[in-house]
From TrEMBL, chain A:
Catalyzes the hydroxylation of 2-polyprenyl-3-methyl-6-methoxy-1,4-benzoquinol (DMQH2) during ubiquinone biosynthesis. Has also a structural role in the COQ enzyme complex, stabilizing other COQ polypeptides. Belongs to the COQ7 family. Binds 2 iron ions per subunit. Pathway: Cofactor biosynthesis; ubiquinone biosynthesis. Residues 1-82 are annotated as: Disordered. This is 5-demethoxyubiquinone hydroxylase, mitochondrial. Fe cation 2 binds at E125, E177, E223, H226.
UniProtKB/TrEMBL annotation, chain B:
GO terms for cellular component: mitochondrial inner membrane. Its main location: mitochondrion. GO terms for molecular function: lipid binding. Keywords: Lipid-binding, Mitochondrion, Transit peptide, Ubiquinone biosynthesis. Pathway: Cofactor biosynthesis; ubiquinone biosynthesis. Belongs to the COQ9 family. GO terms for biological process: ubiquinone biosynthetic process. InterPro entries: COQ9_C, Ubiq_biosynth_COQ9. Residues 204-274 form the COQ9 C-terminal domain. It comes from the Eukaryota. This is Ubiquinone biosynthesis protein. Membrane-associated protein that warps the membrane surface to access and bind aromatic isoprenes with high specificity, including ubiquinone (CoQ) isoprene intermediates and presents them directly to Coq7, therefore facilitating the Coq7-mediated hydroxylase step. Participates in the biosynthesis of coenzyme Q, also named ubiquinone, an essential lipid-soluble electron transporter for aerobic cellular respiration. It holds the Pfam family COQ9.
Amino acid sequence: MVPPRPGWTPLRLCRPRRLAPHTTTPAPARLISSTTSASQAADGFPTSSSSSPSSSGNPQPPNKPQPPKPKKPLTPEQQSFLSSALRVNQAGELAATLIYRAQTPVVVGREPHLRPLMQHMYDQEVGHFRTFNELIAKHRVRPTALYPLWSVLATGLGWTTGVLGREAAMACTEAVETEIGGHYNAQIRRLLEMVGEWEAEGYDVGDEFRELISTLRRIRDEELEHLDHAVEHDAKKAEPHWLLTGVIRAGCRGAIWVSERV
Amino acid sequence: MSSSALACFAGATTARRILLRPRWPTILPGTPSVAAPCRSSSACATRSIIITSQQCDLLPRPRQRQCEQQAIFFTPNRSYHSHDHPPPPGPFTHAEQNLLSAAYVHVPSHGFSQEALALGARDTGLLDISPSILPDGVFSLIRWHLYTQRTLLAAKAKDAVDQTAAVTVGDKVEALAWLRLRGNEAVVGRWQEALAIMAQPSYVPASLKELASLADEILYLAGDVSVDPSWYTKRASLSAIYAAAELFQTTDQSPKFRETRAFLRRRLDEAAQAGGALRSVGEWVGFNASAAVNVLRSKGVRI
């Protein structure tokens, strides 16, 4: 296996814990167990905040807060963080769905044995996209204004890498999911910081945020699972690997930056 | 509402007549002249900045600037809306609320004017000079009308929708837009003045923002869950239709504004038809494109 490169934070942090026990298990079992193992991994992340001790303990049931505790109103800064986070996540899942949709027929046409894998990844992405669509509508967040542009670019990217071959398609998945994994991790950390501050100040943390954090964790783990699949299917053999992944990752970062704002 | 923009075109003559009229013709006898709305940018900081700047102060120095800049573009009801947490405070302080709600009672007789504000101040037992705490003067009174009517919608929405037995989102939108237009009834005789004030360049952005918030509120209450580009087109078309209907309402003499209601319905139907036609074209193009690709694939082309 190729040693991880310096810029691969999520891969380096998540893979040793997850890859070894899961490589041979079937998809559904893998999903549940990977969720637990990687959530532990995320909790073990060094959080930059001072409130990390409380944030690492907060996730779900153990410290159920007493009912009378009030909830703190969200500050404008928190609101704008949450809306840009949901907006960029929806845009990202839209792009992922379209990338897989464009790749699948081209890749599967050449190598039919990849059909179940592509179908599995596509189905999961559709599920994520639906989740964020619901969240955006529920929380009255504006969808990104560049929706048509992202649709065109994502379809183009998926189709191009699909035509370039299986390795290029997998390298594209690898690059995208690496960026997305790191991006979700940053969001989860920020949310845990927020929730930790509330708990430290004696406010209640409602189900809304517990669910949001657990949803983000689940989706993050599934995205990183796609990354593992891509690496297992010769993503590193794409020629030239560094150029392909470099360009796609730079594009992802740019798209994330823009979607957070527009 | 920013029929403002429309007022410039459609009601050009009316608007001009209103604009040319002195805005504060007579100050009430015995009323010391009430301060005109402040014009300097420092004193006139908008409410949202005043509220958030206190929170900005808690941040480290380099973040403060950024936070204040964000606050200018901050629209409360377009960012994350929590169903768990209490809502953030509204755009008016407690003192402003008291003053404006008292002044609002005088709008039908005195218009959106300094007189109404001065009378409102007297009613609440304040000094006549007190309306000068309002950052935008008379425009604050107009915003009070827009803000209260918009927030009232949520409480009344269910009844209004039930009354009209609306099922589809389109019907609910119509019912809610009509509910909002009925909220203008008390001040409709004075609404052209308000439109003229809203059309003044310094107030146009705030008015447009208020219009956008209203369209967003109506669509949300109607249960619209679009999360693609139609989010934008729906809000834009509803804003335009609402602004046009409001302008129509100011000259409507029919009992119970029957004509306005018919006007609103016609415009919404037209928008729905146009949207449907556009969707059909899109569907046709998409179907043919994918069919063409599939034909090529079946011929063995590797695309």
